[in-house]
Amino acid sequence: MFTYQVMVDPKTPTAYSGDYKQVQKAEALDDYTFRVTYPKPFAPALGSWGLAILPKHLLAGQDITRSPWPASHRHRPYRFLSWKTQDRIILTYNPDYFEGRPYFNGYIAMVKPDQATIFLS
Predict the structure, then answer these.
(1) Backbone angles phi, psi at 49, to 5 degrees
(2) What predicted TM-score, i.e. pTM, was given to this entire model?
């Protein structure tokens, strides 16, 4: 529930909030069960809920944009490096990754803003 609340909070700067805002109802049924209800089928939901679950015990009550947790997170092979709107997102390898140095130095996700651009690339 904490992850959902953070993602729909207008103070959280994330490109993913739109997917979470499609939720009609979110419920924590017990310590291990979370249920969301959508007003209509929403296929991207599977990808949305596949993102990392945020640790409430480390982030609750903090300004999430200033928390040291994501930068020092040892369980991700790559760290955020830069984001140029409508162009690219660049990740670099995480030297603190718990399984050792990843094989690739980084990862670049190209953003294709419209169908014509996608067709030309």
Answers:
(1) -80, -5
(2) 0.56
CA distance 1 to 8: 11
The whole-angstrom separation of Cα 24 and Cα 41 is 11
Strand ranges inside the chain, DSSP E: 25-30, 33-37, 78-84, 88-93, 106-110
Strand partners, 35: 27
Q: pLDDT digit string (tens) for 55-100?
A: 888 888 888 777 766 555 567 788 888 888 878 899 999 888 878 8
Q: Which two tokens stand for residue 89?
A: 């997102």
| Furthest-apart CA atoms within the chain: distance in Å | 49
Q: Cβ-count burial of 31 within 10 angstroms (0-12 exposed, 13-18 middle, 19+ buried)?
A: exposed
